[in-house]
Amino acid sequence: MKSTALFASLLWVSLASAAAVAVPMSAPVVPAIAAFPVPEITAAADSDTENQLSGPCRNVTFIFARGTNEDGNVGARVGPPLIADLRAALGTDGIAAQGVDYDASVLGYLEGGSPSGITTMTGLINTAAKQCPDTKIVISGYSQGAQLVHKAAAKLTAAVTARVVAVAIFGDPERVGTTASTLPPVGKVPAALVDSFCHVGDIICTGEGGATEHLDYDENAPAASAFILGLL
């Protein structure tokens, strides 16, 4: 029953993400999700796509993996507000933001994270480490994107892992079945460098509850930004 509820909640999350981002406010509500409140996605964040790794090296390189069915390569719920907070603190020339281009499908989530997305994120981290030897690397992800963070970090060499100065993950499916003292590792990144946000009642990261609490991690962007800035 729990696995059925988890799948149903994930399906709704993916539908809600698509509806909240892609459907104009004047359009009719999709019947399948009409009974659920879908938090409004505002235009406060700059963009759902970031590709600054191809530009000049900067003091900080921030690599973010969006959640299932989100648009662009950093999505709309968590990536843009977190990037905006970091840019406000570091300056636009102080941080290079890069999203992970991957399919972000429900099937990928059920596989424990899109295999191609894991490969892509691993490659982006390695590229940042190689082409910008002085940059401080921060990796982050929301929902399925958090799965990518775990799996990509596990593929890094010790030398590249040492370049990762902070990790912030949100609504992490890998947390299901764990406790605050037994959180799943992010590769070999020290636990003190990892901040994991999981809301009470978020079935995706707790295994119990519903999907509504999975959709408002934008409210944790300031705390995540403060955590990251404190480690730079």
TrEMBL record:
Residues 1-18 form the signal peptide. Gene3D superfamilies: alpha/beta hydrolase (3.40.50.1820). Disulfide bonds join C57-C132, C198-C205. SMART domains: Cutinase. Keywords: Disulfide bond, Hydrolase, Secreted, Serine esterase, Signal. It is found in: Secreted. It comes from the Eukaryota. The keyword Phosphoprotein does not apply. One of its GO terms (biological process) is carbohydrate catabolic process. The active site is at S143, D202, H214. InterPro entries: AB_hydrolase_fold, Cutinase/axe, CUTINASE_1, Cutinase_monf. One of its GO terms (cellular component) is extracellular region. GO terms for molecular function: cutinase activity. It holds the Pfam family Cutinase. Its EC number is 3.1.1.74. It catalyses: cutin + H2O = cutin monomers. Catalyzes the hydrolysis of complex carboxylic polyesters found in the cell wall of plants. Degrades cutin, a macromolecule that forms the structure of the plant cuticle. PANTHER family: CUTINASE, CUTINASE 2-RELATED. Belongs to the cutinase family. This is Cutinase.
